[in-house]
TrEMBL record:
InterPro entries: Acyl_CoA_acyltransferase. GO terms for molecular function: transferase activity. The keyword Transferase applies. The keyword Transferase applies. This is GNAT family N-acetyltransferase. Keywords: Transferase.
């Protein structure tokens, strides 16, 4: 398994856009039903860092995240995707360990019960409701 870590300054728009388009249908609801993928890729390029996990040049997972506070290391995961069947928790933990935050926040769609349940099992709790009615902000305090 190999890991690539890209700081926002080194991310190319075409790479980000192609990546999110390729996994668009892996999300519930699909990303393009709620976001303009072109504009979202521009936002990620400007603000997010990225981790990619590959095995034999095949994409297993990726995570785009923002550094919220470098003082008390905390991150906001804006997009995470595991393409490894049944390997979600293992991959997620590996991605988080590579960033080493104390606090992790992310947004999950209320309709995506599978994702909500997954994050709850990992120790996330509801922190607040998003401005968008269908979203919840989840928070996990790490040790």
């Amino acid at each position: 398994m190999s890991v690539k870590h890209y700081q926002k300054e080194n991310l190319k728009f075409s790479f980000i856009h192609d990546l999110i388009v390729s996994v668009n249908h892996h999300f519930v609801p699909i990303l393009s039903s709620e976001l303009d993928l072109y504009e979202y890729a521009k936002k990620l390029q400007k603000n997010a860092n990225c981790l990619i996990i590959e095995e034999e040049n095949e994409l297993l997972a990726f995570m785009f995240y923002y550094i919220v506070s470098p003082i008390e290391p905390s991150v906001y995961i804006t997009l995470v995707c595991s393409l490894k069947p049944g390997g979600g928790a293992e991959i997620y933990n590996e991605l988080i360990n590579l960033v080493s935050p104390k606090v992790v926040k992310l947004e999950v769609d209320r309709e995506n019960l599978r994702a909500f349940s997954f994050y709850k099992k990992l120790g996330f709790l509801v922190d607040s409701e998003s401005i968008h009615d269908s979203k919840l902000i989840l928070k996990h305090q790490l040790k």
